[in-house]
Amino acid sequence: MSVPPKITFTTFHNIINNELANTATTRHAICPSNEEPLGEVPVSAKGDVDRADERADYLNKFADAIEANNDELTELLGKEVGKPPQAAGFELSLVIGLARETPKLRLKEEKPIDDADRTAIVRYVPLGVGVGIVPWNFPLTLGIGKLLPALLAGNTFIWKPSPYSPYTALKLAELGAKVFPPGVFQALSGDESLGPLLTAHPDVAKISFTGSVETGKKVMSACAGTLKRVTLELGGNDAAIVCDDVDIDSVAFLSFVHCGQICMNIKRIFVHENIYDQFLAAMVATTKQFKTGDHNDPEAFFCPIQNRMQYEKLQKFYSQIGEEGWKTALGGEPGPKEGKGFYMPPTIIDNPPDDSSIVVDEPFGPIVPVLKWTDDADVIKRANASKLGLGASVWSKDVAHAQRLAEQLQAGSIWVNTHFELAPNVPFGGHKESGLGMDWGEVGLKGWCNPQAYWVKHSS
User: Is 410's pLDDT higher than 70?
Assistant: First the structure.
């Protein structure tokens, strides 16, 4: 039995045709826990994009390689994203789950017509070169959820990590270079100028992008010139509807996990007025128990905001608390920044107006509104009022009632008595402005193919 490869985690390169490739210019990202610079990474230009092409498929060996380097990847992920050890370990468990389960998926040919005279087959043909443009918040999970189906479907893949979190992606591609034939899996690090080079490149057949709605619209527009296939997983403003027969501590956890920096966090909590005060008090008490710490703190739950750009956006967002007169049940506007690290106070807003920005917009940080509701039809209308439709959940001991409510929610993923539940064989993606198409599962696998109608006449 072959030994899975190990690599060093101190230097970083592009991976092109299974070789470590440097560029004339380099850059570095910042550790959000202490604002210290991380290692130098490449800044790719047009010539680097042109070199990235080819294919193969040894996904189980790749999963072995990830597991063999699990500890180093976990530590590096904590540094670049700011995740405490438990949170970084959780992401690596998702990655390994995807790496083990995705290869089990299969695309089956369908035969809508099959008689003595003729056969009609629907089959799925790989697109060619696929590109994954991956965000900074869950950089490994969201990237590998694009990579593995693309390769399994028979494509080659170029991984473009966020400039804020390029390190683990480059190391994953370095591992891939020891497993896959040349050109199958490549990674290009760069600044904000790299994405447009990929979306415009004539040899790229598909872009799978995860990020903001605003940038997603730009990606879709850029791909229109060459009619590239596009999958977009964009922002979320997930609603949770809590009925009056439950009191659930896990709602607080699912609002604040990774400091609210997940598209599928609960972003709006609608609580029935009969238990509103009780629920709010319990949520505040639960949230106060969560410790804040950096990527080295094994007891930390709240972590720093991943980058200065997002930290400054949140500073402006929090300033509305005083400007708009929002009532806080916990937290509030941060004082002057002290020490190192991009930390924001966990904040719960008590029953703000439905038209306030804390309800309408996605803050992408540790701040969440709790709102009262009374009538089923009214709360469904309010939950669906958002332009976004990534996920939504209903919480009740009466599961049948909760299901009736959940099935009226306009979102790509709906849950009853849970939220942010995912599996490698179940697709996820958004409705409305939360995206186009889905990743993961058979649906995601088909997204890396062109469906083809194939007719055979048995007699002339």
Answer: yes
